[in-house]
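User: tokens in, sequence out, please.
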């Protein structure tokens, strides 16, 4: 038996009403961690069991097949799998399929009565559209946390109606998602990085992010802000992810790298060691961002800058699953994503319209402030909610210029930082400031020495 939460029950009822009223294409917007798979499976189960409908559950990544299959198995839903390397069961009423495989076998398959597109913000890619257009009579249910495409096209071209679940803030409020603290100890300068297909170019990302200085910074802030917590690190590439794991291991923090090309048993074993707490850092490039669920994550380390609000929210969402003994998730953003896209629980407006017609969700995000002392990112407030630091705190704010969102350094904060430095007299002063800013120990000594040299030179002159 599947037990739905009350808001999931409402979403299911709203979708069924849409179907009854003749809107056969419905997209469900529900935050990562809100339980899209569960409510989608519930609908598939009902359609197959009670109405004897043929249902396809389509995913676009190999890793999501076994995940969906496991959910169906747990829920007692008999199903076949249509994907390379899996034996098929053509008689099963419910089929979990890879979009790539299904698109190739369309001619051989009996038409489905209902299709569920998981992560449906990718719709519009050729194979998705082909399947979509092939069965105009089918009931279609699209699932996504972020119903907009990177190219700005709204999902209104495909879907007639959108059913929305509670916001991230509401889910946190009701305990369905964990509260969090988000820190942005450093942010890369992405202004010169070229874009491809709506997101940063992969190679340029690696050049900017795959550096010992940035990885070392991530290790240091993990130690400082969430030592001993099980954290998933998000890298720009498999190689980068390996470097991250190596750096944590070198610092004595047990870390492992996992990716989609690994033997599934080896990957599952690594995940199991992470769940057991034997491994503290699980580093990956694209594996855990979308759909692939790892329980027991207490922290997320963002090292993959992205222009995709969707990817950002999914990565952060991995850490927001509530768990026994987990009071607050910790998000360490070394990618500047929170400064670009806002906080995970900002109120965002979703519509099925194209981007020109709707306000960009990122624009409707409230500006964020960053604590100069502890790097906490928060909505404008007189004091840092983390450490209470009350001096000018707006390090970065999001500003709209010519329709583009750009980060600006508030000059007030630069002034504030200079004033802090002018106030340092002794080496101990510099060390206190360095520690407060999370700098490496060598920084204070260097600053002190530079000032001392300058002073003695002035004396001599
Ligand atoms: Zn603070």
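Assistant: Sequence out:
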């Amino acid at each position: 038996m599947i037990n739905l939460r009350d808001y999931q029950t409402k979403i299911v009822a709203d979708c069924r009403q849409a179907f009854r009223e003749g809107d056969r294409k419905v997209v469900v917007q529900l935050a990562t961690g809100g339980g899209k798979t569960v409510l989608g499976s519930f609908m598939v189960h009902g359609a197959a069991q009670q109405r004897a409908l043929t249902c396809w559950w389509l995913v676009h990544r190999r890793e999501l097949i076994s995940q969906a299959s496991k959910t169906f198995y747990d829920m007692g839903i008999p199903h076949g799998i249509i994907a390379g390397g899996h034996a098929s069961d053509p008689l099963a009423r419910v089929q979990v399929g890879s979009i790539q495989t299904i698109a190739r076998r369309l001619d051989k398959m009996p038409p489905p009565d209902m299709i569920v597109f998981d992560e449906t913000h990718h719709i519009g890619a050729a194979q998705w559209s082909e399947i979509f257009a092939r069965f105009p009579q089918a009931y279609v249910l699209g699932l996504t946390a972020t119903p907009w495409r990177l190219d700005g096209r709204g999902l209104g071209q495909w879907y007639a109606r959108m059913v929305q679940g509670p916001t991230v803030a509401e889910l946190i409020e009701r305990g369905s998602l964990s509260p969090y603290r988000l820190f942005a100890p450093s942010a890369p300068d992405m202004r010169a990085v070229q874009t491809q297909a709506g997101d940063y170019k992969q190679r340029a990302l690696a050049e900017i992010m795959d550096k010992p200085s940035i990885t070392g910074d991530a290790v240091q802030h993990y130690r400082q802000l969430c030592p001993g917590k099980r954290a998933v690190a998000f890298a720009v590439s498999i190689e980068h992810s390996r470097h991250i794991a190596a750096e944590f291991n070198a610092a004595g923090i047990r870390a492992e790298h996992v990716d989609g090309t690994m033997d599934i048993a080896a990957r599952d074993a690594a995940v199991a060691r992470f769940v057991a707490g034997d491994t503290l850092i699980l580093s990956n490039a694209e594996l855990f961002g979308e759909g692939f669920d790892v329980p027991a994550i207490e922290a997320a380390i963002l090292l993959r800058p992205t222009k995709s609000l969707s990817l950002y929210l999914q990565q952060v969402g991995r850490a927001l699953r509530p768990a026994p003994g987990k009071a607050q998730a910790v998000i360490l953003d070394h990618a500047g994503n929170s400064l670009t896209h806002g906080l995970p629980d900002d109120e965002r407006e979703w519509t099925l319209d194209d981007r020109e017609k709707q306000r960009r969700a990122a624009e409707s995000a409230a500006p964020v402030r960053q604590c100069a002392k502890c790097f906490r990112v928060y909505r404008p407030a007189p004091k840092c909610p983390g450490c209470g630091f009350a001096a000018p705190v707006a390090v970065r704010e999001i500003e709209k210029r010519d329709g583009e969102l750009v980060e600006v350094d508030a000059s007030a904060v630069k002034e504030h930082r200079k004033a802090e430095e002018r106030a340092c007299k002794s080496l101990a002063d510099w060390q206190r400031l360095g520690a407060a800013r999370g700098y490496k120990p060598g920084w204070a000594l260097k600053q002190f020495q530079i000032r001392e040299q300058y002073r003695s030179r002035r004396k001599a002159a």
